[in-house]
């Protein structure tokens, strides 16, 4: 999912920065977690049409790097570590199922309680085996993303076995501190070209695992975060308070990686352990969030690869507390399953620009403005009858920085209908400049109100504020019932404020 030519031109510099924020209140009940913003090894082998031997050699180079982070984490008594999507396989842009096949392993099913480490049956599956051994050796839950192959045949009861006789899944795997496969989650919403090489499970996969430190985790990968399942089943029906989230997220100025992760944590009232690839700023952004508050985050602002590990103590959230913050309650999992079936999309349906989806690539409306000192303004932006509103007050504004209020109300890139309001810092006063990724700002909006005409009965509004302070949390000044930020006394420069709402629900769906 990454531009191969750019990737090949990078020189891999594996830098390690440990950010450890230690909770001083010893009475608190917590576990210790690590997430790695990891840049996969550069390819030194032909990535496409590789033999299994070459594919193993490449993938083991990444697992070797993982081992260093696991060892480092163990010195901080980490209980669970999470690695990103495509961290082991790399993102070489496979076009066919056969090309990715040498990179896949038959990952044991959870029900079989297999410890692949030192089990000869897994000698041909060195990734599964190595990760199992690392988890066991360092007494830590290890969560990583691999490719799973499940061989199949058609039968009288099912005829969904692919022509090549195998299901291929983009898979998040959890190994217990004993090295046992305790969680195996098949990515339920493939993105871009993934549909050409992987299968989606027939309904969204719902997977949780329990740990030796008595905390239960739900599992999710990348694009899944923008769909109602599996997250509603995990957060709302099962009351899961901890999620491991592995991703290769392509940043957009209306949905930066860390802010999307932070929103899930707020929405679910949950801890989110999120690991992204650190290859460059376009995809980077990892963190650990608790009920919407960033505990620690990592980001690679450069165009050269860097890997970092973030470690923190995570408070254990009582699962009997507020289930989540959704205004809409889905009552039982039977309904969820039928919704899931209804919303299932067919593989290969998605076509998109792998460089991401900037707002000038679809028909957004841009209202570009330049805030001045000591100003009170109201800006409107309207797209297909949907209006966004941004009112602000400033004190002193240094420099010349343009912003845009961007609105959108239409089908979003064939995925779903979406309503979007984004107020984003621009590189210049053009729509292209206001579609760019911006990672710094000087402009402080001292008081602001940000809202849109969302239909909250149909749309799930992801609410995000991205400032120069990577610990900022404005959810106490967010009203979820009206999808409005009303922020006073803000003293941090802003890169982006966004209300990004895919349509999840249907008219007359509740009966
Ligand atoms: C991989 O194999 C396909 C056909 O099997 C061929 O068209 C393609 O050129 C090959 N790619 C490389 C990089 O060898
Ligand atoms: C090793 O793996 C095989 C295949 O999954 C399984 O049948 C066997 O029970 C395992 N052996 C041990 C000692 O766990
Ligand atoms: C299974 O059946 C489907 C539908 O008829 C067909 O497309 C597919 O090729 C079959 N798979 C195998 C392995 O024969
Ligand atoms: C594990 O968690 C359950 C429910 O949250 C609790 O009842 C139990 O006492 C905990 N066990 C330990 C060993 O902490
Ligand atoms: C933008 O709108 C025009 C005119 O309605 C339409 O032809 C075009 O396909 C739209 N582009 C996108 C990316 O939706
Ligand atoms: C945009 O900026 C250029 C200079 O960078 C200026 O010449 C032009 O007038 C500006 N356009 C608007 C609409 O502000």
TrEMBL record:
<dbReference type="InterPro" id="IPR036526">
    <property type="entry name" value="C-N_Hydrolase_sf"/>
</dbReference>
<dbReference type="InterPro" id="IPR040154">
    <property type="entry name" value="Biotinidase/VNN"/>
</dbReference>
<feature type="signal peptide">
    <location>
        <begin position="1"/>
        <end position="20"/>
    </location>
</feature>
<dbReference type="InterPro" id="IPR003010">
    <property type="entry name" value="C-N_Hydrolase"/>
</dbReference>
<comment type="similarity">
    <text>Belongs to the carbon-nitrogen hydrolase superfamily. BTD/VNN family.</text>
</comment>
<dbReference type="InterPro" id="IPR043957">
    <property type="entry name" value="Vanin_C"/>
</dbReference>
<protein>
    <recommendedName>
        <fullName>CN hydrolase domain-containing protein</fullName>
    </recommendedName>
</protein>
<dbReference type="Pfam" id="PF19018">
    <property type="entry name" value="Vanin_C"/>
</dbReference>
<dbReference type="Pfam" id="PF00795">
    <property type="entry name" value="CN_hydrolase"/>
</dbReference>
<dbReference type="GO" id="GO:0016787">
    <property type="term" value="F:hydrolase activity"/>
</dbReference>
<keyword id="KW-0732">Signal</keyword>
<keyword id="KW-0378">Hydrolase</keyword>
<feature type="domain" description="CN hydrolase">
    <location>
        <begin position="31"/>
        <end position="316"/>
    </location>
</feature>
